[in-house]
Design brief:
single chain; four-stranded mixed β-sheet
Length: about 90
Amino acid sequence: MAKERDFQAKLIKEIMTRFPGALAFKVETYIQGFPDLLVLYGKHWAALECKRGARAAHRPNQDYWVTFLNKMSFAAFISPENKEEVLHELQRS
């Protein structure tokens, strides 16, 4: 199974290719459980929490932040298994 950081790096490149003009970058914050990636696209934004696999454990507060941020705009857990589904939902939002 690939490492999460490898999945993140490929995902950032794919998002910026799939959404021309988008900015996607890794978030480094002191807030425990805050999602890994922030995507900025025009006046829209999304937060994505990367997991190396669909069954990877969720760390403390990750569920809280994904739910909270999803109510504001768009946020989701993303892994290789659900990547296409999540990116499709991101495109629809």
